[in-house]
Amino acid sequence: MHLNLGSILQANANEQPDAPVMRASGETISYGELDRAARGVATCLHERGIVPGSKIALLVPNVPEFTIAYFGALYAGATVVPINVLAAAPEVSYFLEDSGASLLIVHPLFEQAGREGAAPLGVPVVLATSEPEGETLGALAAGAPIDVPHPTSPQDTAVILYTSGTTGKPKGAELTHSNLLLNCAVVVPKLMPPSDEGHRALATLPLFHSFGQTVIQNGMIASGGSFTLLPRFSPEDAFELIERDRLTIFAGVPTMYFALLHHRGDRAHDVSTLQACLTGGAPMPVEVLSAFEEKFNVEILEGFGLSETSPIASFNVPSKPRKAGSIGYPVWGVEMAILDENDEPLPDGERGEICIRGHNIMKGYLGRPDATKETLKNGWFHSGDIGYRDEDGCYWIVDRKKDMILRGGFNVYPREVEEVLYEHEDVVEAAVIGVPHESHGEEVKAVVALGEGAGVSADELRDFCKDRLAAYKYPRIVEIIPELPKGPTGKILKRELRDT
Question: How many CA atoms lie within 13 A of 43 on its CB side?
């Protein structure tokens, strides 16, 4: 049996070649143009000695060249290795060496890190520009188009996504053509309202990350929709593009919703075309969700997943009762369970580890059989998240296993404390961590950023939590800083707070 993730582009290029698929910097690219460019890239990759199964690394932000290179590599039967564009040269070297990449395609903005990372390994570099000559993606795209995408099998590795590496070196999750095709196929019919015109999404989540790649890029292409690229998120730019291109879908991590909610621009933007907002990657505070929905009159659907799960595992969906603050229900073809330390199922309402199985689960970690065995046990992928299932079959995350604070023998879940902090009108961002304590083992510490003009003190925030939480839960330490550290997707980086 043959299956290539690139078939989602091929199908819509055949059916609607003139329909728009991407918009960027005033330029609109059609399905036919994207397909033609990807076919040219595939031919030239073969001419350069790239064989099916070769690894092609991409160090490219949210610009059309990412999608052209992505599908060009897939059409060639190669494996795509997206790299975080903020990676330094030693990190680029690590990703290239660990994956065994045969080629690096790098955007000019990140050329120095790319070339310095590739040089010690002798990995050739192609610039992700549209120029039709030289060592550029444009020159590859101008090649004679390949007749048909390489007939890969469903279990061939399509993409290697490197996890964040909060412990030790990042690991490469091998995602198959089947994993990614089935995962993006559930996005539009299951998560979004029907649309006669086809959905138009904002692509500001990094495409090198699983959320933006599967839900926006691949989800829109699979459904015949389109997306507008925004390489660097800002609330003003996001509002302008939603208004200009009459976008119907916005997907972002919670910090993006905070920024949109609290943005004070020169004028109000018309975002009435939005039909659905999606969030994941980090817990969405219920206070922020409610305030955003009330202000913009659009529902936010929260979901859950990891790089290892392609990424979607569960989502709130329009066809079932939405429960604010939950991660919803397992998507089609995916099972979830709450298991104890012996991998035995727990009753509804009891807390345990969220475990997942289904078509979305990775093959394993590239070159790391021990890590794979540790994570994929007894037929289940172990997420590392603590949660529970309610009586309606809806799942809730309590916190990450590694984030749980053990204070004086009591478990404190940071998310519960963060929810209380977000209830305070002056708090814009909040993160709760455990810090070493001589007698209690760990103490609860809150790090917060305040809104413009806010005057609340650290002591007042501590007392605010004290009045609303059990005595062992409220933060004894409260630190106010201008802005919390974030990764490229906008997730708050708690590990950086712990290191300070």
Answer: 17
Q: What distance lies between CA 446 and its chain's CA centroid? A: 25
Q: Is the preceding omega at residue 311 within 30 degrees of 0, hence cis?
A: yes
Please name the helix (run of DSSP H) or strand (run of DSSP E) that holds residue 450, with its range, or none. strand 441-450
- What is the enclosing helix (H) or strand (E) of 250? strand 249-252
DSSP secondary structure string for all residues of 14-28:
HH-TTSEEEEETTEE
Give the separation between CA 1 and CA 30, rounded to whole angstroms.
Answer: 30
Q: Tell me the DSSP string of 158-205.
A: EEEEE---SSSS--EEEEEHHHHHHHHHTHHHHHS---SS--EEEE-S
C-alpha dihedral (179, 182, 188, 194), degrees to nearest 10: -170
Do 469 and 485 touch, CB atoms closer than 8 A?
no
Tell me the three state secondary structure of residue 410. strand
Nearest one of 210, 191, 248, 300 to 489, comparing CA atoms: 210
Residue 472's SS3 state is: coil
Residue 141, classed as helix, strand or coil, is helix
pLDDT tens readout for residues 60-79: 999 999 999 999 999 999 99
What is the spatial distance between Cα 260 and Cα 86, in angstroms, rounded to a whole number?
Answer: 24
CA distance 89 to 474: 42
- Using a 10 angstrom Cβ sphere, with 0-12 exposed, 13-18 middle and 19 or more buried, the burial of residue 347 is exposed
Two structure tokens written together for 55: 């690894």
Which whole-number Å values give the CA distances from 203 to 38, 211, 327, 365, 496, in the listed order? 20, 10, 22, 27, 27
Model pLDDT for residues 64-120, shown as the tens digit of each residue: 999 999 999 999 999 999 998 988 898 899 999 999 999 999 999 999 999 999 999
φ and ψ at 452, to 5 degrees? -60, 130
